[in-house]
Write a structure and sequence with these properties.
Elements (H helix, E strand, L loop, with lengths): L25 H31 L6 H29 L6 H34 L4 H4 L2 H22 L1 H5 L17 H40 L5 H40 L5 H25 L1 H11 L15
Helix pairs in contact: 1-2, 1-9, 1-10, 2-3, 2-5, 2-9, 3-5, 3-7, 3-8, 7-8, 8-9, 9-10
InterPro entries: GPCR_Rhodpsn, GPCR_Rhodpsn_7TM, TAAR
Protein name: Trace amine-associated receptor 13c-like
GO molecular function: trace-amine receptor activity
């Protein structure tokens, strides 16, 4: 393995201010390249499938699917920009201008905050669907969900601009040498971010899904105990409730995987171990990996997604009436 003495400068013409090029072994370089050329393209392709599916087929224009569409857009951003840049930062210098570094940091925080916001909205959607099913169609409409999604993205953008204001208004202020891209956050800002993007959202998601779980269990017991004496009208309602319960379970898996991927990053940050470069990279990449896993969850639990992917790859969506196909 190379030593720091053997490492080259990022900018040889800047002898006194240039950073050293990252020193990685051949094994480490191989691992980074595998991550770069496997997970990044896979994340982009899978999330494009979700975006095209929900956007193209009219039957999929439901409130819940619009929330999945919003999540897929933020996940696409992760696969398209954040994953490759995070990996390249480990194996090479930052050769772009400081303003591009600030833009990358903003996109990284923006993607995470919108994903968290989408997960909270998904949890609220399932809470209303299970706990107040009679009023779900009136309370959760496509128009209201679109407004909530727009507010989520707008508020996330404003929040990230405030948190990263110093990095955005003074690009390169906190770097120690030419060739690195680093973010700086004051202690108070870090506490605010921890509460706003981790503690409060996770607490809300946990509380909402615990309520969903309790109601789902009671509904399942009620359906089992009255299945033989139920009327035709109530039978239809039972089928509807069963469908909502199935959707709740599917989206529950999505939320659990989200927490598994995001919690390690914030736990490491909370314990102060984020200054260990390799550990920080691993936790960040695991968090980004959630963007690749989400579409895989859809493929396991949603028949409409599998059908949509088949129609996309067979180019049947190019037919004039394809947007009206029956998907569910």
């Amino acid at each position: 393995m190379e030593t720091h003495e053997e490492a080259e400068l990022c900018f040889p013409e800047l002898l006194n201010t240039s950073c050293l090029k990252p020193v990685v072994s051949q094994t480490e370089a191989l691992v980074y390249h595998i991550l770069l050329f496997t997970f990044s393209p896979l994340t982009v392709v899978l999330n494009l499938m979700v975006i095209i599916s929900v956007a193209h087929f009219r039957q999929l224009h439901t409130p819940t699917n619009l929330l999945l569409l919003s999540l897929a857009v933020s996940d696409l951003l992760v696969g398209l920009v954040l994953m490759p840049v995070e990996i390249l930062r480990k194996i090479t210098c930052w050769f772009l201008v400081d303003s591009m570094c600030s833009l990358y940091l903003f996109l990284a925080w923006f993607s995470v905050s919108t994903s968290v916001g989408d997960m909270v909205l998904i949890s609220v959607d399932r809470y209303v669907a299970i706990c107040d099913p009679l009023h779900y169609t009136n309370k959760v409409t496509v128009k209201r969900v679109k407004v909530c999604i727009c507010l989520c993205w707008f508020c996330s953008g404003c929040y990230c601009f405030v948190i990263l204001n110093d990095n955005l208004t003074h690009p390169g202020k906190h770097r120690t040498c030419q060739g690195e891209c680093v973010s700086h956050m004051y202690f108070f800002s870090g506490i605010i971010d921890l509460v706003a993007t981790f503690i409060l959202p996770v607490s809300a998601i946990f509380a909402l899904y615990m309520s969903v779980f309790v109601v789902a269990v009671s509904q399942a017991r009620a359906m089992r105990s009255h299945i033989t004496s139920i009327t035709a009208q109530r039978s239809g309602k039972a089928v509807a409730n069963k469908s909502e319960l199935k959707a709740a379970r599917s989206l529950g898996v999505l939320v659990v995987v989200f927490l598994i991927c995001f919690c390690p990053f914030y736990i490491v940050s909370l314990t102060g171990n984020s200054f260990i470069p390799l550990l920080a990279f691993c936790m960040t990449f695991v968090m980004y990996l959630n963007s690749c896993v989400n579409p895989l969850i859809y493929s396991l639990f949603y028949p409409w997604f599998r059908k949509a992917v088949r129609l996309i790859f067979t180019l049947q969506i190019l037919q004039s009436d394809s947007c009206d196909y029956t998907m569910v």
